[in-house]
Every structure is written in C-alpha cells, then in structure tokens.
Amino acid sequence: MGSYVPSTREERQGMLEAIGLKEYSDLYRDVPRDMLLDHPLEIPSGMSELEVSRAMRAIAAKNHVFATVLRGAGAYDHYIPSIVKSIPAKEEFLTAYTPYQAEMSQGVLQSIFEYQTMICELTGMEVSNASVYDGATAAAEAAAMCRTNKRRVTLVSAAAHPDTIETIRTYCYGTGDELRIVPQKSGRTDTVALREMLTDDVASFYLQQPNFFGQLEDAEAIGQIVHENGAMYVMGCNPIALAIMKTPRDCGADVAVGEGQPLGMPLSYGGPYLGFMATTAKYMRKLPGRIVGETVDSRGERAYVLSLQAREQHIRREKASSNICSNEALCAMTAAVYMAAMGPRGMAEAARQSMAKAHYLASQLCKIPGVSLRYNGAYFHEFVTEMPRVQEVLQSLEQADILGGLTVDGAILWCATEKVEKAALDKTAAIVKEVLER
Questions:
Q1: What gap in Å lies between CA 331 and CA 310, rounded to an integer?
Q2: Which residues of 155-166 are buried (b: 16+ CB within 10 A; e: fewer)?
Q3: What is the C-alpha separation between 394 and 183, in angstroms, rounded?
Q4: DSSP notation for 189-243
Q5: The pTM is what?
Q6: Would you list the domain boundaries of the chain?
Q7: What is the DSSP string of 234-301?
Q8: Contact, 371 vs 436, CB < 8 A?
Q9: Helix (H), strand (E) at residue 112
Q10: Are 382 and 210 in contact (CB under 8 A)?
Q11: CATH placement of domain 82-338
Q12: CA-CA distance, 287 to 141, in Å (whole number)?
C-alpha cells in the first residue's frame, strides 16, 4: 500500500494515531479473521521496465500491418499527418477527463468547442454535441431523440452498415420500440417501399450516405419523402465524403451522425473511435450528451462552459431519452486537430483522391473476365464486385501483403483511400487476374 501513497511512513503512522489506531490491520478489525488474506496472491512476480517492454513488443509482433489496405466497411485507412498524433499525446490532453469544473478545464472545453464548430461546418448543422462512443451509437441515439409519444417506430435502410442496424435494434429492444427495415434495391434504398412504410407511427428514417455498399443514395429526394409523412430524417455520413458532397442539412436532414474514425484515428483494433452528432437549433434540447458553449467571464474575457446537457439523464431519469453522460473527448480532439491540419482543401483532396482511386481500381478489376460490378449506381470510394473463387483471390492478395476487400454475400466490398498508390492498385488487379486465369 505504501508504495502507491505519496506520504512518508511517519505521516501515515500519524494519520492512524489521529483516528485512534496503531496499524493498518486495525482498519479491518470488524472483518472476520478467516476473510483476511494472510498469504501472497498466486500471481507472477513483478517485471522490470525492460522485461515489460520486451513482453509488449513480443505481443505486438503477432500483429500484421498490411502494406496495402483495400478494405473499409466502416473503418478507413487514411493518411494521418504527424501533428495529429503529436498534439493529443501531450499529457495535459492525454490525461484530462470529463470537464466538470469549467474554471479548471478551459483547454479541454475549448478543444471540444472547436471540434463542435468544425462538425457543424462539415454537416451544415447549427449545433453539435461533444461526441458519443462511436458511429453506430450515434445513429441509435439519433433514432431515440426523434421518438415522441405518438411516433415510436424507427425505419432504417437495409443498405446501412449491418453493425449500425444491430445497434439501433438493441436500443429499440431496450425501450420496447419497433425497428422496421426498408429493403434495398440494386444496392440502394427502395424508395417505393419507403413511401409505403412511412405510416403515422414512424418517428424517423435512418439513411447512410454513402451506404454500406459504397453507393450514393438520392439523399435529397429521400428527405422530401420522409418529411412529407411528418417523420424526422437522420443521415449517417462519412466525414471525408462530406468534404466534397452536399451537406446533410442541404439534403434536408434533421440530424446528422457518423463515425469520426476517418478524421485522424488509426485503424487500431476497432477503436477507440468517436461518434459525431449534429442537428438544427430546433432540436438542440433533444440532442444527447454535452454541448460546450463560448461565453465571457466576469472580466469580459473569452471563456468556455458546459452550456447545455440533457439534465434528465442525471435527475429525472424516468423521462430520459438517453443514458449517454460522457464523451470521447480525446478522440474528438484528435478529429479537431486533423480537420484543422487538413483544412477544407486538404480534406476535399483526400476525398477526391479516394474516389478517383476507387474508380480506377474498379475499372481495372472489371477488365478481367469473370469480374463485374454488382451495382451500377454512382459510388464514392467503395464498390462491390462479383467474381468467382473469392476466398482464393483474397488469400493470394494476403500473401502479397495486400488486405483485400470484405466478403459480402459471396462478393467483395472493396475500398480505396488516398493512401493507396497506383502501383498497388495495378498489382492487385494483376493478382486477381492471375488467380482467375489458373
């Protein structure tokens, strides 16, 4: 115990005597003797720093980092400028926790405020929260904030990410509400089916743009269909794609959500990531989590505060639509540094290069006999190809240090980002051709 307490043996003895005790064991005098541990725990002895370093390197060596990554499906391998890794690693940010006391947390609050501002610029919305746990959680929280006493049903496009659909389903199960899946047709949301399913009990419709198959949905037209029924429109967005596409607000969305991982977070092993959420001023008080605001202090100088949060989450919990009481502040700061470092032109260039390289890869693959696009619609930086011998193709790519696409219903969902060189794309196509010609 003494090893972890920053006080001397004499000081600790003085504290014991001050409460009428002689030794630490007296603190547990009311605990039966047979409940006390009187022998060392059966765990390995401690290791030196050098030994720990060697052990961790040995564990890390089991990981394989592919030279070329052509898989997305929700987590994307974008270039991360070195400054994005450096600034959040500073100890004043790395060790900071939720800013309960504004006067003690101005730096963290400002970083969140800057993040919120940039998310609003990216989505076209008027207010953003301080982030939630991940993109799927953001989608589920958005669906929850849209429900009313009379409208409890959530519609979700079948073309959305399967993990997002399941997360929304879990939320609906927990609150006793209903989730209905709008079918997809040719890789995109079936708008005819959507019209038929928009009944008076539907609270919202969730659309992913681009969708899970990489296809670009007619988001503006879908927004009009949803609003004609009086339901709310939630769009799940790829933040890099937003640099060159219409904003969710331009498409009529009431809530914009998404996974912030492409904004400077490495792939890691599935996280930690962050979910961004933004909405219009009309729905600001329904937005879960925290909102940091800018104000002035008693001296008239700029200051930051937690200006709004859904107090029902803490006090009137029976009325709460969310139990989100924290945020991914460090990941949000990372996203803010990334967006500031890249700027609008840098992010747009990353989006354009990703899109161009994906289309180039698709064109090269489709020149190979037996390979074709499953869906013919416009797409961003992901696409699905039909081809024989899928597993053999992916195994051959892996042997060449290339992580191929994700298998989806017997086909392959490919992804390309600005990081992939043309030579790697040509090599991929050559390997696929070689396998299929055997």
A1: 22
A2: bbbbbbbebbbe
A3: 29
A4: E-HHHHHHH--TTEEEEEEEES-TTSBPP-HHHHHHHHHHTT-EEEEEE-TTGGG
A5: 0.88
A6: 2-47, 68-78+343-437, 82-338
A7: EEEE-TTGGGTS--TTTTT-SEEEEE-TTTT---BTTBS--EEEEE-GGGGGG--SEEEEEEE-TTS-
A8: yes
A9: helix 106-123
A10: yes
A11: 3.40.640.10
A12: 9
Q: What is the pLDDT of residues 300-346, one digit of tens each?
A: 999 998 887 655 556 666 677 787 877 888 999 999 999 999 999 99
Instruction: Report yes or no: 88 and 333 within 8 Å, Cβ to Cβ.
Output: yes
Angle between helix axes 329-365 and 422-437 (nearest 10 degrees) is 50
- CATH architecture of the domain with range 68-78+343-437: Alpha-Beta Complex (3.90)
DSSP string spanning 371-404?
A: -EES--S-BSSEEEEE-S-HHHHHHHHHHTTEE-
What's the chain's Rg over C-alpha atoms? 26
Total count of residues recorded for the chain? 438
Q: Which residues pair with 268 in a beta bridge?
A: 271
Whole-angstrom Cα distance, residue 111 to residue 99?
11
pLDDT at 306: 84
Take residue 284 and report the two structure tokens written for it.
């600001």
For 123-143, the pLDDT digits (tens) are 999 999 999 999 999 999 999
Give me 140's structure tokens.
């589920």
Crossing angle between the packed helical segments 422-437 and 390-399, to the nearest 10 degrees: 130
- Name the 3-class secondary structure at 332: helix
